[in-house]
Amino acid sequence: MIDLGISKLALIGVVALVVIGPERLPKVARMAGTLLGRAQRYINEVKSEVSREIELEELRKMQKDMQDAASNVEQTVRENMSDVESGFNSAWDDPATVSQYDANPLASPPTPDQAAVKAKDFRRKKLARTSAIPAWYKHQHGRRTRVISGAARVAKFRPAGMARKSFH
Length: 168
What we know:
By secondary structure, the chain is mainly α. It has helices spanning about 5-20, 25-95, 110-130, 135-140, 150-155.
């Protein structure tokens, strides 16, 4: 890049003043400034356009990568579904064959003893959950079900002998 110091700029200004003359120097200086501004704007536009093109190319590459990944996932899902479907069809056609799907405990209903044990365990856990804290403690320290004002609370818990006196 051109190295222009203050001394070189002053020398250029003196030469321009002598060559162009004092009458036309302001017009020429304005025109030179306008041309320099246009050149800077053009350079900035070119830089921004190049950066936009680079970003657009990166986005296209990312889109292609995502489409490839999506197609791979889709292919894997299709393969797994076809495996499951073939296993299901083979089990449906020949129920005597043992496959990986026969190990599922949900395939056969539980025996009455298993159901009774499970129900008893459920009742025991529910009882422990609900009765671990006494009901009176829950009502006294739990969440309020009805919100009442402070004056209503005072009136509610005021002893019976103390009547509220009104001043009319």
